[in-house]
Specification:
Blueprint: E1 4-10, E2 13-19, E3 26-30, H1 41-47, E4 52-57, H2 72-85, E5 91-94
Parallel strand pairs: 3-4, 3-5
Antiparallel strand pairs: 1-2, 2-4
Length: 97
C-alpha cells in the first residue's frame, strides 16, 4: 500500500507525512525512534476501510528536515498536526523500540 505524501505545518516549519486515505475517524500514526512513517504501511492497509490513517515523520526522521532539540518538541508537534488536520479527537497510535 502506498499513500500520498503530505506536509503538515508546525511552529517552525513542516513535518512530512503520509496520508493513506480512507474514511471516518482520524488515526494519527507515530513511529518510534529510528523509524519513519513507512513503518506504518502494513498497518494502514488494514485501517483504511474503517478510518482515515495518517503517519508522521517526526523531527530528524524520514523526509522531515527539521531537527529536534528536545523530546517535548515531538508532543508539541503532534498537537500542531492535529490542529492543522482539523481533527477534534483523533486516535493516537504509537510504537517504540
Amino acid at each position: 500500500m502506498t499513500g500520498k505524501e503530505i506536509e503538515l505545518p508546525v511552529v517552525d516549519g513542516v513535518l512530512s507525512g503520509v496520508d493513506f486515505g480512507g474514511h471516518g475517524e482520524g488515526v494519527l500514526l507515530v513511529h518510534g525512534s529510528g523509524h519513519n512513517a513507512a513503518a506504518w504501511m502494513d498497518v494502514a492497509s488494514h485501517l483504511v476501510s474503517e478510518c482515515h490513517p495518517i503517519a508522521l515523520d517526526l523531527r530528524g526522521h524520514g523526509q522531515t528536515r527539521l531537527d529536534s532539540t528536545h523530546p517535548e518538541q515531538y508532543w508539541r508537534d503532534i498537537g500542531s498536526v492535529v490542529t492543522a488536520l482539523d481533527w477534534d479527537r483523533p486516535v493516537l497510535v504509537g510504537h517504540s523500540t
